[in-house]
Structure formats: C-alpha cells, structure tokens
Amino acid sequence: MDIDFAAKLNLPALEKGWVWLVGAGPGDPGLITALGLQALSQADYILYDALVDETLLALSGAEKIYAGKRAGVRSCKQDEISDLLVKLARDNNRVLRLKGGDPFVFGRGGEEAQALAAAGVPFRIVPGITAGIGGLAYAGIPVTHRDTNHAVTFITGHGIDGKLTQLDWAAVSRGAPTLVLYMARKFAGEITQALLAAGRSPDEPAAIVANAARADQQVIVTTLAGLPAAAENAPALSILVIGENVRLASELSWLAKTTA
Ligand code: SAH
Fold first, then answer.
1. What are the b/e assignments for 236-258, b being 16+ CB within 10 Å?
2. From 49, 53, 99, 102, active-site residue
3. For residues 94 and 42, is the Cβ–Cβ distance under 8 A?
4. Known catalytic residue: 1?
5. Is 183 an annotated catalytic residue?
6. What confidence score (pLDDT) does residue 260 get?
C-alpha cells in the first residue's frame, strides 16, 4: 500500500509491542481514518469484529483473527479477546484491534483498553466514525440541525443482559429532542410505548437507517407511531432515530443520487 501520506502527515507508527484500538467507521471503507489505514499496512496481527468491511481487511498482509461476539456469550469471549491482545503485544507484535464505527461508542473498546492498561501494554486509541453520526449522514439526516435540535442523545437499546436498557425513559422523553438508538430494533415497540406514555407525539418523525454507509443501505422514514411496525421489517443492522431532524432526509438524501 502506498503510505506516502503517513510521512507527510507525520503519523506515529504502530510499533512492536503496541496495540492500536481503531475504529473502521460504519461501512464505507473510505471512512476509515489515515491512522487506521496506516495501521492496516503496519500490523502483524489484526483482530477484527463482524462489522468491519472486508475490503479493508484485504488491504493488509497481517495475520487476521476474527474476534466478533455472539449475543449471550459476551463476558467469556470478551476476556479471551483482551487476553489475546495482551499476549500478542507481549510477544512483541504490532497489534491492530479493528472495530466497526468508533471503538468507544457501544463498542467495548473501553473494556479492552482497561485490560491493556492493567497489563501494562502500551496502546493508542484511534477514533472512528460512529454509525449514529456517520450512518445518519449517509441517510441525509444531520445529527444536529439548528432549526430542529440543540442536543442529541445516544442510547443503546439493550444492556449486557440482552434486555431493554434500564433508563428513565420519561426523563429521556422530556429531555432529548433527538434520540439515536443503537442495538434497539428488537425493542422498538417497548421504546415507542415508553416515549408515547411520557408524552411524545405519535406523529413525530422517526427513521430506521439500516446497513448505513453500505451498498445495501436502506432508509425507512416513518413516525414514532409507525416505528415498531417499520422495525419489524427492517434489516438487523440498524440505527433508530427519533426527532424533528429526521424530516431533513427528504431534502438532503444524497447517497442514492450519487450511486445511481
Ligand atoms: N462501535 C459501533 C457500534 C457497535 S454496536 C459504532 O460506533 O458505530 C452495534 C450496533 O451499531 C448495531 O446493532 C447497530 O445498531 C449499529 N450499527 C453499526 N454499524 C451500522 C451500520 N452500518 N448501519 C446501521 N447500524 C449500524
């Protein structure tokens, strides 16, 4: 790979014995950062998760290890991944941990960094474009917009136990003009009910952005009342958005136009 840009940008190198925790962005391989691209060219090992684009992995000659997790077997698997990162670094390898989106946004990057810190392994965090911001941009939905919302709230639909996140949904409903929900498709019905009960309008715009920034991206624009039904038919990999800023999608959607 031509990495002339690395010298020009004065990028630090991925050194032996180090782990870089890197965000690959939500889908489109072009959304990885310059640091991430350089790490692909320098790594001896790449531990990647299920959301990472294959064409990015194909750029690298490193040894590639799939380190995705299935729902329900999280804790044991997570420890194994952290242990492997530590072991590979201690064996003096250049280790790239590549995750979808941003490693610190609902990505367990913090847990892996804690394990590295505890083991005394040097590491660097390379942020990525998170699905709840970049994926929305690919759907023509500005995550904030002056006319519609002065705040945005990122929420995960389910916690470690796989159940609906325990939150004060009434407070969220009152205090969050725009909600961006990860891992929430299965709970769209319960979330909608909680928000309606707390006084949100059934007519409020809502959207599902599925497979965002991928070739098969789908944007389903609906209302809060229509969200549960829309979620039932939506692809699994999806972000839910509730808020007035969703209206802008009709004006600002650009991806179909660029790829047509
Ligand atoms: N760290 C990642 C999020 C990992 S959690 C990030 O910053 O984006 C996994 C959840 O992210 C999925 O269940 C889905 O809600 C969301 N997600 C990730 N990539 C997505 C994509 N391309 N399109 C839609 N949703 C996506």
1. ebbbbbbbebbbbbeeeeebeee
2. 49
3. yes
4. no
5. yes
6. 40
Average pLDDT of span 84-108: 97
Q: Are residues 74 and 170 in the same domain?
A: no
At residue 220, φ and ψ (nearest 5 deg) are -110, 110
Kind plus residue range of the DSSP H or E element containing 97: strand 95-99
- Please report, for the domain that includes residue 168, its CATH number: 3.30.950.10
104 and 147 in a single domain? The answer is: no
Mean pLDDT, residues 36-51: 96
User: Rounded to the nearest whole angstrom, what is the distance from the C-alpha of residue 200 to the centroid of ligand 1?
Assistant: 25
Q: 172 and 115 in one domain?
A: no
- Final residue belonging to a domain, choices 126, 150, 176: 126
Residues contacting ligand 1 via CB (< 6 Å): 26-27, 51, 99-102, 105-107, 130-131, 135, 182-183, 209-214, 237-239
Q: Which atom of ligand 1 is nearest to the CA of 103?
A: 1
pLDDT tens, 195-242?
A: 999 999 999 999 999 999 999 999 999 999 999 999 999 999 999 999
Q: Which structural domain, as residue segments, surrounds residue 74?
A: 5-126
pLDDT higher than threshold 50 for residue 53: yes
49 has catalytic annotation: yes
